[in-house]
């Protein structure tokens, strides 16, 4: 777990919001196979206990970020 991982973890934890507000589905490796390593890295970061403890629930983030959707 590097400083770069630490700095990017909050953004990675919210990446699903792009798909939710764009087409109501999450971005997946099946849809973007060229980014397989990125998705593996993102999932590894999300699996860390420290990231899980510090990330708000998905439902909360979806509702809070709804105000910025155009």
UniProtKB/TrEMBL annotation:
* Alphabetical list of InterPro entries matching this protein: Glutathione-S-Trfase_C_sf
Protein name, per record: Glutathione S-transferase
Q: Can you name the source organism?
A: Dissophora globulifera
């Amino acid at each position: 777990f590097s400083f770069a991982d630490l700095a990017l973890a909050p953004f990675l934890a919210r990446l699903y919001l792009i798909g939710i507000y764009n087409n109501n589905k999450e971005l997946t490796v099946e849809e973007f196979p060229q980014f397989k390593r990125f998705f593996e890295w993102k999932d590894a970061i999300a699996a860390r206990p420290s990231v899980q403890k510090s990330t708000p629930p998905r439902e909360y983030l979806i509702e809070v970020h709804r105000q910025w959707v155009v």
